[in-house]
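Chain A, query sequence.
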Amino acid sequence: MNSVERVAQRTRELRQKHGLTQQELAEVADMSEKFIQQIEAQRKKEIWVSTVERIAAAFCLDLHEFFAPDVPEHSELAKKVVSSRVHR
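Chain A, predicted structure.
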């Protein structure tokens, strides 16, 4: 698995663990929903470290925790999410 695939998989795993939609994760990570969709769908050929840091920070994780072999158990959301009206 290459690094783009690892980022996509871990982003999706953490988002689902916390019961977030892509829109809600985008809000917490201060990114666009479309950008989160592109990451998870592996449509980005390259992902900058600063981007991964922002996603990790959304879950109160450091980079090494984000890339750990297993999904981190102690992750939490960096800020409260306004629930999406679309999926709830």
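Residues 3-17 form the longest helix (15 residues). Helices lie at 3-17, 22-29, 33-40, 49-58, 63-66.
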